[in-house]
């Protein structure tokens, strides 16, 4: 009988916890992914500012961003690079700006840095994820291999960490919609002011 009484008491506690949890979850859910309609509303409200902005690039739950004609390739050599907070990627890469009509060739197993044509500015209650597109992933191209979280309140262009995992040389074509930006609504507000906050123009 004691065991039954104990189980009954546990059941009551569990039931009470579930009821309280339900009450909390019935309200608005922060951090939700913005749908196409919500993205368009946020653009109209000025909470999302894409420059230049192409409404046709807005998808069902993201917006496509295009590849610029600016790239950074890794300098040849076997130097030892210390992975620390103050290590500057510019010291081991070299920047190139392609003339109109040219493409950037990336050999198998090689990486480079690209950057989006568009700048993205977010309100302090929005953040996001930068992802590649499936059609290019199926060709063996990793458009953004790490650091996909985009901070709240940013106002910059997005650097792409590109890697060719295929057995073929790929030609990166400026103007191609290579990646997509997914918008997230935060619980609370914040604003990024880190080392990449001024990543506008050719300053990268």
Radius of gyration of CA atoms, rounded to a whole number = 23 Å
Query: Strand-and-helix sequence, N→C?
Result: HHEEEEEEHEEEEE
Count of beta strands: 11
Strand content: 25-35%
- Give the assembly state of these chains: single chain
Main sheet summary: 9 strands, antiparallel
| Unreliable stretches covering 5 or more consecutive residues | 1-10, 14-25
Overview of the structural elements:
The structure is a single chain. It is globular, with a radius of gyration of 23 Å. The longest helix has 24 residues, at 2-25. The N and C termini lie far apart (72 Å). The chain is built from three helices and eleven strands; from the N terminus they run ααββββββαβββββ. The protein has helices spanning 2-25, 36-45, 134-137, and strands at 48-51, 63-74, 93-97, 104-106, 111-122, 126-132, 141-142, 149-150, 155-164, 170-172, 177-185. By secondary structure, it is an alpha+beta fold. Strands 1, 2, 3, 5, 6, 7, 8, 9 and 11 form a nine-stranded antiparallel β-sheet that branches. 19% of the residues lie in helices and 34% in strands.
């Amino acid at each position: 009988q004691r065991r039954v009484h104990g189980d009954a008491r546990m059941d009551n506690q569990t039931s009470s916890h579930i009821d309280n949890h339900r009450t909390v979850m019935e309200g608005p859910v922060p951090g939700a992914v913005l749908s196409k309609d919500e993205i368009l509303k946020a653009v109209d409200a000025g909470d999302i500012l894409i420059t230049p902005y192409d409404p046709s690039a807005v998808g069902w739950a993201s917006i496509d961003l295009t590849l610029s004609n600016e790239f950074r390739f890794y300098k040849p050599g076997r130097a030892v690079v210390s992975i620390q907070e103050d290590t500057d990627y510019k010291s081991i890469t070299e920047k190139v700006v392609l003339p109109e009509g040219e493409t950037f060739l990336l050999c198998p197993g090689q990486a480079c840095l690209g950057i989006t044509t568009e700048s993205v500015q977010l309100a302090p209650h929005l953040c996001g994820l930068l992802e590649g597109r499936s059609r290019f992933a199926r060709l063996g191209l990793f458009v953004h291999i790490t650091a996909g979280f985009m901070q709240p309140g940013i106002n910059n262009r997005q650097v792409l960490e590109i890697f060719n995992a295929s057995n073929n040389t790929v030609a990166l074509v400026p103007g191609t919609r290579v990646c997509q930006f997914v918008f997230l609504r935060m619980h609370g507000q914040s604003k990024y002011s880190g080392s990449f906050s001024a990543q506008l123009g050719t300053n990268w």
